[in-house]
Amino acid sequence: MSDEIVYINGEKFKILIPEQDIKRRVKELGEQISEDFKGSVPIFIGVLNGSVIFFADLIREVKIDCEIDFLKLSSYGDEKISSGHVKLLKDLDCQVTGRDIIVVEDIIDSGLSIKFIKNLIMLKNPKSLSIVTLLYKKNRVQIDFKIDYIGFEIGDEFVIGYGLDYAQKGRNLKAIYVIDSQK
Ligand code: IMP
Ligand code: MG
Predict the structure, then answer these.
(1) Residues surrounding ion ligand 2 at CB below 5 Å
(2) 144 catalytic, yes or no?
(3) Which domain holds residue 138?
(4) What is the rounded CA–CA span in Å between residue 115 and residue 124?
(5) What pLDDT sits at residue 182?
(6) Could you read off the pLDDT of 100-156 as tens digits, one per residue?
(7) Domain count, the chain
(8) CATH code, domain with 143
(9) Kind of pairing, strands 159-160 and 176-179?
(10) Atom 16 of ligand 1: nearest residue by CA position
(11) Are strands 87-90 and 100-108 parallel, antiparallel or unpaired?
(12) Which of 20, 32, 51, 142 is in the most buried spot, having the most CB atoms within 10 Å?
């Protein structure tokens, strides 16, 4: 069991999605992806750093052969709102051309990062490109393409845990927490 309340960088956070709910949903996503990609060997692309925990759990729920690779972007500084700029800090090492690519994100907020990633990968001519995100801020996202697999839709709130950080802290929490404005 995870703590109900945690303090990270002096701010109070309360549980939004308990560990068991995440586990159950990640298993479902892994099973769904295994079914959808039967007969293929997809490459899962983890987006560093936020997706590492979800990524590691998700691929272990995938029952078909797969490969992995990572890319790293920067857009957020240590703040709770995006700087609005996306920069590529680490490119892919794998050969994308002709392969089924599955990008694994922790959260889609404005959609700026995933738009950037999609453009980057499409330039490399994959056979297909799918996107899986654990969290999706449905009232904030501004994109004109669909996200193939969504773990949980959440409101317009700042969340941490299970890989997601607040000024680099909180990634090691087992549940997803939301900032608690009532102090
Ligand atoms: P977007 O480009 O606005 O969609 O933001 C995507 C990235 O911002 C995510 O991959 C996260 O790293 C970060 N991010 C967005 N919302 C949150 C949040 O609520 N908590 C922590 N990180 C977030
Ligand atoms: Mg991220």
Answers:
(1) 50
(2) no
(3) 5-179
(4) 15
(5) 72
(6) 999 999 999 999 999 999 999 999 999 999 999 999 999 998 999 999 999 999 999
(7) 1
(8) 3.40.50.2020
(9) antiparallel
(10) 109
(11) unpaired
(12) 51
